[in-house]
Amino acid sequence: LPVDRLEGKIRFEKVGFRYGTASPNASDALRDVDLTIPAGQTVAFVGETGAGKSTLVKLVARFYDPTSGAVMVDGRDVRDLDPTGYRRRLGVVPQESYLFAGTVRDAIAYGRPDATDAEVEAAARAVGAHDMIARLPSGYLHPIAERGRNLSAGQRQLIALARAELVDPDILLLDEATAALDLATESLVNEATDRLAKRRTTLVVAHRLTTAARADRVVVLDGGRVVEDGTHAELLAAGGRYTELWRSYTGEPVGATPGP
């Protein structure tokens, strides 16, 4: 089926998934996941390493297809959608965005090589990356080494977010970088992420629980299953798995208000 625009409603219908490389005794990466995500909602997936967070997001991106069940977007099975047209409507920001050798401008325009300089700058401004770029010795023409080695982790993340903004996706899939950032840079990246998530359905693999606290909704995964689903405040009040994760992450008592 052709894809022009997506409304952005996502439904996981009894989704199960097993990696082809998994050993015979390994458990499935996802089991019986049932979730409905309304268009425009920002959902953070949290859980220990191996809980299935990234796998869920990869199924929406169609890096893999479910072993059982279906992933539906706007009521249609993603397997029935034209793959090229569908992927053009997605903004995918992986945990470590790959930056090829070239200029900052090239890196932002990677998904839309025909973009004008004005469009590239508008995308950078939209996510708050313009000031950082303007401070580089050659601005948008600043050379980037292979894999962005000559940029800081924060600079790479801001460029990756500007790249996603330029594509103007209907659905944003964001696997949060685990690289440690100083507080000022983390705040910039958080603001950029929030700006990018506005107006579009956003799925975030949240490694920092402060990111989960800012989402409209938090889904907690454990062993490939959904164990909790609600807002940050609701889940803290419930005193379950999320509360344990929050306590160990922040070292704060549960009644404490989350940071920005």
Give structural notes.
By secondary structure, the chain is of the alpha/beta class. The chain has two domains: 11-89 and 170-186 and 198-255, 3-Layer(aba) Sandwich (Rossmann fold); 97-168, Rossmann fold (3-Layer(aba) Sandwich). Helix content is 34%, strand content 23%. The chain contains ten helices and twelve strands. The strands form three sheets. The chain has a six-stranded mixed sheet with strand order 6-9-10-3-11-12. Strands 2-1-4-5 form a four-stranded antiparallel sheet, with helices on one face. The protein has a two-stranded antiparallel sheet with strand order 7-8. Strand 4 (68-73) and strand 5 form a beta hairpin. Helix 4 (117-126) crosses helix 6, helix 6 (153-167) runs parallel beside helix 7 (183-197) and helix 9 packs across helix 10 (241-250). The longest helix is centred in the middle third of the chain and has 15 residues, at 153-167. This is ATP-binding cassette domain-containing protein. Pfam families: ABC_tran. Residues 10-248 form the ABC transporter domain. One of its GO terms (molecular function) is ATPase-coupled lipid transmembrane transporter activity. Keywords: ATP-binding, Cell membrane, Membrane, Nucleotide-binding, Transmembrane, Transmembrane helix, Transport.
Quick tags:
single chain, 260 residues, alpha/beta, Rossmann fold, 2 domains, 6-stranded mixed β-sheet, 4-stranded antiparallel β-sheet, 10 helices, 12 strands, 34% helix, 23% strand, globular, ATP binding, membrane, cell membrane, transmembrane helix
